[in-house]
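Hi support team,

I submitted a single chain yesterday and got back a structure, but I'm not sure I'm reading the token output correctly. Could someone confirm the output below corresponds to the sequence I sent? I've pasted both exactly as they appear in my results page.

Thanks,
R.
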Amino acid sequence: MIYRLFNNNKPIVQIILSLLGVLLWMPSIYNNKGVQFIQTYGLFEFLDKVPIMTGQFISIVIIISTAIILSYTINKSELFSKNQYLPALLYIMIVSSDNNFHVLNPIIVGNLMLSLAVLALFNVYRQVPCKNLIFKSSCLVLLATIFYFPFIVFFLLPWLVLSIIRPFEPKEWLMPIVGLAVIVFYLILIHTISPSFFDFKFSFKEMEGNRVELSLMLKLIYGLLIIGCFSSLLILLKLNAKSTNRFRKLSLILLAVFLLFIALAIYSNYYLNLTSLVLLAGIPISLLLPLTLVHSKKKWLSELFLSAVFILILFDLYFI
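Hi R., thanks for writing in. Yes, this is the structure output for that exact sequence:
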């Protein structure tokens, strides 16, 4: 039922997605839960001043917006023959799966910026100049970096997309540098006008002991998602053998996003000693996993997989 419901592009599905987001966050809103430590490595001090419940509702709106953008990105590409909201459903479930992170935090805001950057890069075509798209995506990645510094690894993504899709054009390759100069200029300007607006204190000592132990249920959920992702990578390789050139280019972009996520995960988990990988994994998994669900020859397996993940997440949030 869940797979059939979200494997379409009916407008009512957006309303269902909104209700689903509230449903998954309701236990934390009701019990006033949410870990605040995730804000200690953000660059914006004002996040600490937002009441927890207000921040939670803002987070739900941001998460749903990001989810719809991811589905729109996939639907406007050549990766699938049918429009659907599976990426949106997966993103909402993944980033909402652990109530330790049910609080307004920089990664959720940064993910919104990254989703817009990916949307812009998916609109890059071989025969069409794309300086504006590269500039826009670079600025969006840098804005995400302001909220969560390790997102800087995605600053390589515009250049990777150019190398995959476009012939070499010096002006296009300079656009990320121009974007960096513009963002730095405005940051300096804002800091000059209001020095207290940014909190640039970044201490690794603050992060010691901030790790959150995953429950057995969450380990099972993430294990299923990892298996689904590797299955999607294998399907992507098989589809490349008999696909159009555009499909192959987009699949390479997906692979680039996944590899950059792995680099980000290693940096965050082992160097910063954080357990926020569930939030960081939202975008790459929600873009990859629909390949397994849609191209499975036995649709009942897709239904069983998606229903099992949803029920396990719901059970963990409400009863554990």
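A quick pointer for reading it: Confidence is low (pLDDT under 50) at residues 201-209. Let us know if anything else looks off.

Best,
Support desk
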